[in-house]
Amino acid sequence: MRSRGGRSGGDRWRERGAVVAASLAVLLASAAVRGQSAADLTGRLAIDGSTTEWQPAEAAFRNAAICAALAVTPCGPDEERADDSAASSLHDVCQIRVTWDAGSLYVAAEGTLGGDALLLFLDWTPGGLLQASGVLGPWRRALRFGPEMQPDAFLAVRDAQPVPELWRATGSSQAIQVASADYAAAASFSAEADGRGLEAAIPWRVLFPAAALGVNPEPGAPTEPMFVLPAAASTHGLRLAVAVVSAGEGLGALDVAPDNSGGVALDPRAVTLVDRAVFVNWDAARQGPPHFVDFGAAVQTQAAARFVPATVASATALRIENLRTFAGGSPSRLLLPDAGIDLAFAFDVAPPAPTAIYVTASLYSARGEQVRELYHDSRRVAGTPTGVSGAFGDPGLDRWDGRDGAGRDAPAGVYVLRLRAGLAPGAVTSEERRAVTVVR
Predict the structure, then answer these.
(1) Cα–Cα 20 to 30 A to 42, which of 99, 101, 111, 361?
(2) b/e per residue, 146-178, with b = 16+ CB within 10 A?
(3) What domains appear along the chain, each with residue ranges and CATH number?
(4) Is pTM, for the whole model, over 0.70?
């Protein structure tokens, strides 16, 4: 049930956090005395939907520009490719940003929505949403979550109505809306805008309404009061993920970041698994899980972030490439069925890793109508040279005899051979096409 301000929503949050809010004044004052730049970011980070004022070190995903700004070489994987959306670059997650000061957590997500919507998931304690299909209100989606990302809350925004909403999980498939007065958020996805996206500043009292302040007794620790987090929350750290989702309720995702382990299906009705997250330790400077966390001590940087699970390299880099066709054993784009020559094809997978993938091959007419599906989710092992001329593939399957799905000869003309591959049945991580001419 959506709450717009009664005791069922934001007011109850404010009551529970009243003591913490009063104590925060002590923390903010002490941080200001220390003169630490992280104590107050409100003068630098304007919550206006443009991320141009964020620093490169506050980005989670590396790309050429981020690496150049940070002087990082080699750049390494960025965990979120720019060309992996199931629906094109018009519906794509581009970046996640995160930092904080003594008062608030700051998060941002950049991307292109193409008329759809974006969900930014936040997870800071064990447990949370297991699926979003039961969420009441406008944000019911065909999403489920793996053990590394079970959101405690999410920010949601539509391209057509860029007014972000914050929702907090109340169970494994339920959430309530947080009163807008409890946080600051803005979004802009204009095609002409630089750093377009969603931005939010969420006070710590909203994230941890039951947290208290205390003095850390550890040797060498600051003497100012710090948050005393529950042990589970302190160890869990902060986890973030983003999904561009279809505007319609009950549909799945078009893109997920960090890249999930199984890819995103082209069918918007398919359930999307969100099983990876950007992870940032609450206390990266001390490299431990103390329950006392001084949020005013330092701005977290990209170098402090990592991804959980640690790696799914095959998911982020898998692609079909170098699709080749053969007629009678010679490279050709012509299929001559009257001469008894089938069309054979071969392709490569990059990188060639010993990983199971699932390939679907289909033929389409020039008008885009499916003429025949040669096979669906054929399981292959990347890196196994079993195809034509030693290429990846299966010579027994990777061929077309010039007939449609009903066994009739396809008319002369131009056709399109389309290959799709993913790391799980139904998933599509890469696609390759090749024109084929039938001559009769």
Answers:
(1) 111
(2) bebbbbbbbbbbbbeebebbbbbbeeebbbbbb
(3) 10-312 (no CATH), 318-438 (2.60.40.10)
(4) no
| Residue 12 host element (H or E) | helix 10-16
Cα–Cα dist 317/266, whole Å: 18
- pLDDT, tens digit (0-9, with 9 covering 90-100), for 193-226: 566 899 999 999 999 988 888 888 878 777 888 8
CA–CA separation, 66 vs 63, rounded Å?
A: 5
Judge if the upstream peptide bond of residue 351 is cis by omega within 30 degrees of 0.
yes
Amino acid code (one letter) for 15: E
What residues pair up with 121 in beta bridges, in sequence order? 154, 241
Q: Chain-wide mean pLDDT for the chain?
A: 78
* Contact residues for 125 (Cβ-Cβ < 8 A; gap 6+): 152, 230, 232, 233, 236
Task: Give the amino acid at 45.
Answer: L
Using alpha carbons, select from 12, 216, 195, 224 the residue that is nearest to residue 97: 195
Is 43 exposed, middle or buried (CB count within 10 Å of its CB: 0-12, 13-18, 19+)?
Answer: exposed
Name the token pair of 139: 């944000």
What is the residue whose two structure tokens read 């003591």? 19
Candidate ranges 64-73, 94-103, 132-141, 165-174; pick with highest mean pLDDT = 165-174
